[in-house]
Design goal:
about 110 residues, four-stranded antiparallel sheet, Rieske Iron-sulfur Protein, binds FE2/S2 (inorganic) cluster, globular
Length: about 110
């Protein structure tokens, strides 16, 4: 069975300023919740290239930019999109229920 964990309220997502992601800690893992086109996407918050939190970078559409070396990831699947990042970050399934954002932890 899927381990759905409540990560945030949808109102926390709605309150984010343009370009911001919401950092949450779930089961010891730092996860960035990223709004895009009315959906919420969840990826591992730690850049695959170094010790930086993607949630401290900039969310531009479906891409989040790492604050350290400006590598880009697609928040929909965690895939690397521009140098210097070459490895993906984990992405997690998300659902919204009763105003809560739930993330499927592995
Ligand atoms: Fe993220 Fe280098 S640490 S691009």
């Amino acid at each position: 069975t899927t381990n759905w964990v409540v990560a945030a309220s949808i109102s926390d997502i709605d309150a984010l300023e343009e370009g911001m992601a919401l950092s949450v800690e779930l089961g010891g893992t730092a996860i960035a919740l990223c709004p895009f086109e009315g959906e919420v996407y969840a990826i591992n918050d730690v850049c695959s290239h170094g010790a930086a939190l993607l949630s401290e970078g900039y969310l531009d559409g479906c891409f989040i930019e790492c604050p350290l070396h400006q590598g880009l990831f697609d928040v929909r699947d965690g895939s690397p999109q521009s140098a210097p990042v070459t490895a993906p970050v984990a992405s997690y399934r998300v659902k919204v229920e009763d105003g809560k954002v739930l993330v499927a932890l592995p």
